[in-house]
Amino acid sequence: MNPKKMWFLALAVLLTPLVAHVILVSSGSPSGLATTTLAAMPQPDTTTTPTPTPSPSPSPSPSPSPGNQGCTLGFWKTHTGLGPGNQADAWLTTGIFRTQDLDDFFTGFGSIEETTLLDALQFTGNKSTLDGAREILAQQAVAALLNSASTGVNYPLSTSALQTEVNAALAIGTRDAILAEASRLDGFNGLEGGICGQP
Fold first, then answer.
1. Domains of the chain: which residue ranges?
2. Which of 20, 28, 125, 152 is the most buried (most CB within 10 A)?
């Protein structure tokens, strides 16, 4: 049989039993809606159905491998598209806005939780105090957040995994736990590659 005729026949077989419902806005009914049913196309007396050919069962798709790219907090500070000396706006690849606050993504930053993401990248932090440790983690967490959300970076952590890790370190609440997480993220953020250059 001609392939065009076979395609048409297969399409007709699929569409024949369908009944379409059309909801019309009607000012005359109490609910404002009326339902109309269109009759199905009449079925032909004889139907030839193409014999399906067996297809191989799909193989399970491999789980995505962890990424090996990350951009430093310095990259995200200087690629905002703002002011002199700044490069193109890499934040556009993330769907995240510079004006969003830390507490839009993380919990437990305490007194700095309402700091904007861009301002958090400017923190200097002091490793010897708990507040300073939180600032150091905030810097690395923002860079990691942007990396995980960016379409131009194949980051080792998903955004949700990152949020879970950061929130857990902040919940522990010790300077050592917070600095350990900041150090871990600093390592991932320093991988380079993707939009921030080749490793």
1. 73-194
2. 125
